[in-house]
Amino acid sequence: MLSNELPIGFIDSGVGGLTVVKEAMRQLPNEHILYLGDTARCPYGPRPAQQVVEFTWQMTQFLIDQGIKMLVIACNTATAVALDEIKAKVDIPVIGVIQPGSRSALKASHTGEIAVIGTEGTVKSATYEKELLEKSPDVHVRSLACPKFVPVVESNQFTSPVAKKIVAETLAPLMYNKPDTLILGCTHYPLLRPIIQNVMGSDVTLIDSGAETVNDLSTLLDYFNLNNYDRKVSKTCKFYTTGSPKMFRDIAGDWLDLKTLEVEHIHLGGK
Amino acid sequence: MLSNELPIGFIDSGVGGLTVVKEAMRQLPNEHILYLGDTARCPYGPRPAQQVVEFTWQMTQFLIDQGIKMLVIACNTATAVALDEIKAKVDIPVIGVIQPGSRSALKASHTGEIAVIGTEGTVKSATYEKELLEKSPDVHVRSLACPKFVPVVESNQFTSPVAKKIVAETLAPLMYNKPDTLILGCTHYPLLRPIIQNVMGSDVTLIDSGAETVNDLSTLLDYFNLNNYDRKVSKTCKFYTTGSPKMFRDIAGDWLDLKTLEVEHIHLGGK
């Protein structure tokens, strides 16, 4: 098989990376997709950086063993701590979600007041601040960890009244001196987007770091001549989860608007 | 000097690539720029492909000798015939303007009726059609060579009544069964943009392939860790032309809104 015909790999701590896959399916309809969500060990946010690096390596190795032409680390927590190392060591192109999201926020912001919401791990890494301030030293960046958001999404309660309450309470610190641009610095958060937009108000631009990543993915597929032009084989999406295939299928089927979905349970990390 | 601090190189047959530089200055304010316009041998459009390849190599070599960290072939005619060869043979990242413009047109078009205007060389190469149809076999692409546009721009007459007449007459064949998206497939054409938009009507989306290229440039600067973060040295833009520095300075100063402009005459191609 030509490498162009191999799937693109996406990894995430759970279902969050599906927000990136959704955009990839829209913008890159010819590409095959392999997805791995480490649901059993989700959330990654509260874990020590070294453990996140280890888990991310395990996911990367699993998808590379299946055969992929490019890897998207569709998880902000993993991108923050593992992207540079993985990119340096594997021989396919690897991208994360933080640089595209930062670039897009800088384009969108008029006031220079940018806020980032993410997991504890992402916020602690300060990767967004670093990216934003290196490119544009004059912006003012605030970061807020939202540790309750990922569990709400992973338990498929992201449209519930509980979700609304949690989002409103968590984002309250941002309501004074509101940013004009808010980076959804976790790929799970776009599933909460309507609620987040409602809480923040329509005057705040939300940046979906995952969706922005697909623009970079397109650019790099072109740059490395890796586009799939073969239309003889019908397009495939395959999903792996370390957790419950049923729960994964419920969320993914709804979110991606797919009636049938090939989801396989796998085990990562030895015994 | 760290490679991050080197300038980005831009090459074009003349002043057209300045439309790309203008967008680069806006989106990438920290980057140093070296520009080479081969004004003395412009237009490239009517020249045989092999000669365009040869001239493009000469420009590439000149800028590489000055020291650049990345090269933008900011000329559609040169991109169409020389990008693959140059990209394969030089050891810095090289991008052209056709893939970004094609991608953007596919995103913008709702009806799938896409038209491309460019030089004879670009149209003859059918590179846009190939890019567009490989990615989206269902679109309908028409191409129209506009050989009179580049000379109008290079002679600094791009707002004149003559320009209006030439644009209206040249684009007449596109007025039946109008496309919804028109690719400005030559980096000179954005200087004629108001006239082109007026002729085509406000319902036609114009794609500035050069401006789109700067999005790719940002992505690749991130991907290859080539951003310039050094703010100690004030930003520099230097321009080389094989033609008249005065004419170049007049056009470039207006277009880039720069009061002073370092323009140096050089000779390319041996004796």
TrEMBL record, chains A, B:
Pfam families: Asp_Glu_race. It is an enzyme of class 5 (isomerase). GO terms for molecular function: glutamate racemase activity. The keyword Cell wall biogenesis/degradation applies. Keywords: Cell shape, Cell wall biogenesis/degradation, Isomerase, Peptidoglycan synthesis. It catalyses: L-glutamate = D-glutamate. The active site is at C75, C186. Substrate binds at D12, S13, Y44, G45, N76, T77, T187, H188. Coiled coil: none annotated. Pathway: Cell wall biogenesis; peptidoglycan biosynthesis. Its EC number is 5.1.1.3. Provides the (R)-glutamate required for cell wall biosynthesis. NCBIfam families: glut_race, PRK00865.1-3. PANTHER family: GLUTAMATE RACEMASE. Belongs to the aspartate/glutamate racemases family. This is Glutamate racemase. It comes from Candidatus Enterococcus moelleringii.
